[in-house]
Specification:
single chain, 450 residues, alpha/beta, glycerate kinase, domain 1, Rossmann fold, seven-stranded mixed beta sheet, six-stranded parallel beta sheet
Length: 450
């Protein structure tokens, strides 16, 4: 295989390790006497309804895995559910309805999301103490599970989110603000639930796997932090740009604490850490020397891409010339960078953080000969990278020769955050379609092997 094929194989192994259906199936067992979910045993004689709700890019796979685990068991006919998913992830299941809530590539709430979220609220509110509710939560859940507080509109909330995203605010800041404007985030969905037991199964797309951040924590209560949301908006210079209704709501009286009556079980079933480990295993199977991965990658994609390439070359030197030349070095990175599109003004192109990460590396090393024996691939494990049809991008000596040969000014494309256009021209896009999972981004760098 070529270096590029090796990089794709290693990256794919990382994505495969976060398979959403398998991750959920491992948490469920059922026999003639009891149902066990995430280690919690429920005697069938005490079980009423089994209601599954959820939201996220991995929602379709998670719901399918849930059905597969219970098919043919005594509780399958008691199972029902509703999960909000992107349009291109929708497919028919037997007992759980998948609700197409937003178009592919548009990672923000729509009227269909509001409709689906109200359906979920109605369902969990109609449960009783003998019933079990299971929440399937994954990356993208913040946009796919949305019901703004009555004081503001969906358009108000969208504007706030777009302003924060446009200035490069990390997911932690985005979710902090969104939580304060929501009827479901920050544990409020759990507060609306009336089941005796509420089990949350989670696929994490956030650095460090904090429960209050993943999907904005619909089943994880957080203390009221309207003042903190105001501080985020002020620090980003946005207080005078957000809708007046939002500002007045956040400046209003403090919110009462979230009260949850259901017994709760919270279980992480897949994360970026596991994907990094699986990718490293595959790299070693292919004969590469692996070095400690760069975990919790964050910051500006245009900065981190160049920094990654520097780390890759240093890792090759540290491994020793003989071993590096014979086997090659594999450096992995996992996390989620940001793109500050506001820096380009009105001259903004098309792309995503993974494509910009790779483009920044290409700009840092513009000479095609310097890429001899090297390749960099970075992609979103969900198969989406910004509002594009690509998961990410790849660069190697061949791609760099195409950039040079076509006279493309990579620096200009980077300035305009227009990575998709450049990589489309040189056939450097990585396109996978939806993967039914989402554990942030995964970058694979290979160096040294000829």
């Amino acid at each position: 295989m070529t270096l590029r094929q090796d990089a794709i194989e290693i990256w794919t192994a990382g994505v495969r390790a976060a398979d959403s259906a398998a991750a959920v199936r491992r948490q469920i067992a059922c026999d003639a006497e009891a149902l066990t979910i995430a280690g919690c045993r429920i005697p069938l004689s005490e079980l009423g309804r089994l209601e599954v709700v959820g939201a996220g890019k991995a929602g379709a796979g998670m719901a399918a895995g849930f059905e597969q685990a219970l098919h043919g068991t005594p509780v399958f006919e008691r199972l029902s559910g509703w999960v909000n998913v992107p349009d291109n992830c929708n497919r028919p299941l037997q007992r759980i309805h998948l609700h197409a809530a937003r178009p592919a590539g548009r990672n923000e709430p729509t009227p269909a999301v509001l409709q689906g979220t109200q359906e979920i609220l109605d369902r969990v509110g109609a449960l009783g103490p003998r019933d079990v509710c299971v929440m399937l939560l994954s990356g993208g859940g913040s946009a796919l599970l949305c019901r703004p507080v009555p004081e503001i509109t969906l358009e108000d909330k969208l504007l706030v989110t777009r302003l924060l995203s446009g200035c490069g605010a990390p997911i932690q800041e985005l979710n902090l603000v969104r939580t304060q404007l929501s009827q479901v985030k920050g544990g409020r969905l759990a507060a609306a639930c009336r089941s005796g037991l509420l089990v949350t199964l989670v696929i994490s797309d956030v650095i460090g796997d904090p429960p209050e951040i993943i999907g904005s924590g619909p089943t994880w209560p957080v203390s009221a932090r309207r003042q903190a949301a105001l501080q985020v908006l002020e620090s980003r210079g946005l207080l005078d740009r957000i809708p007046l209704r939002v500002k007045e709501f956040l400046q209003g009286s403090p919110e009462a604490s979230v009260q949850i009556t259901s017994q709760q079980v919270y279980r992480m079933v897949a994360s970026n850490t596991e994907s990094l480990a699986a990718a490293a295993d595959r790299a070693r199977e292919l004969g590469y020397i692996t070095v400690p991965p760069l975990q919790n990658l964050q910051g500006e994609a245009s900065v981190e891409g160049a920094r990654f390439m520097k780390s890759l070359m240093e890792a090759g030197r540290d491994a020793g010339v003989a071993d590096a030349a014979a086997k090659g070095i594999c450096l992995l990175a996992g996390g989620e960078t940001t793109v500050n599109v506001a820096s380009a003004g009105s001259d903004v192109g098309q792309g995503g953080r993974n494509q910009e990460f790779v483009l920044a590396a290409a700009v840092a090393m513009p000479d095609p000969t310097a890429w001899s024996g090297m390749v960099l691939l970075s992609g979103g494990t969900d198969g989406e990278d910004g509002p594009t049809g690509a998961a990410g991008a790849v660069c190697d000596a061949e791609i760099q020769r195409e950039i040079t040969g076509q006279g493309l000014q990579a620096t200009e494309f980077l300035r305009r955050h227009d990575a998709w256009t450049l990589f489309h021209k040189v056939q450097g896009l990585v396109v996978t379609g939806p993967t039914d999972t989402n554990v942030m981004d995964l970058a694979v760098g290979l160096a040294g092997r000829k």
